[in-house]
Amino acid sequence: MQKARKKREAPLQDTLDVIGIDAITERIAECVSLRVIAAECGVSIGKLLSWLSSYPEQYASAHIARADTFADEILQIADDGSNDTYQTDDGEVTNHDVIARSRLRVDARKWLASKMAPKKYGDKLDVVVNNTPLVIFKDFTGTKPTLVIENG
User: Fold this and answer.
1) Where are the alpha helices (DSSP H) in the chain?
2) Using one digit for the tens of pLDDT, what is the confidence trace for 128-152?
3) Taking the model in full, what pTM does it have?
4) Under 8 Å CB-to-CB from 150, ≥6 apart: which residues?
């Protein structure tokens, strides 16, 4: 039974290798979800994650690029006020639903960016101990969240 299972997994691995790490990390940087990427490649999300674990530097770089893309999208959403109001017979009316949806979109991207690139977009605590500045933040990029303390 194990042997038959291995035979089915091998072509999936080959599919990812044919597509290549550069193409897949580019899609990650474009904020395409891993579920969508896995579906496009014809593999399960578990198989995709397993394959990506073989390329830790490229995968980490793609996450930082994705966080940068989220930051860019935050500015676009915040600057777009085109549907914030509409005209009625009584005059201009504020469209609170559109504003609330934009706020949700911004907040979701801020939260994700802070987890993908905590050093750049996460909450930090600047502390000075014995005249030595320290920066403290949570790093969510590894397998477990860790508290990081660095010289500022």
Assistant:
1) 2-19, 21-29, 34-41, 45-52, 56-79, 96-116, 118-121
2) 667 777 666 666 666 666 666 666 6
3) 0.69
4) 134, 135
Query: Residue holding tokens 């579920």?
Result: 35
Distances (CA, A) of 101 to 41, 70, 83, 114, 131: 31, 16, 11, 20, 45
User: Residue 71 burial by CB count (10 A; 0-12/13-18/19+): exposed, middle or buried?
Assistant: middle
Residue with tokens 């940087």: 29
- Residue 15's pLDDT is 86
Q: Which residue has the tokens 């014995």?
A: 130
Q: Which residues contact 17 (CB under 8 A, 6 or more apart)?
A: none
| 3-class DSSP state of 87 | strand
- Largest Cα–Cα separation, the chain: 73
β-partners of residue 87 are 92
Q: Which long-range contacts (CB under 8 A, 24 or more apart) does 36-43 make?
A: 41/15, 41/16, 42/12, 42/15, 43/12, 43/15, 43/16
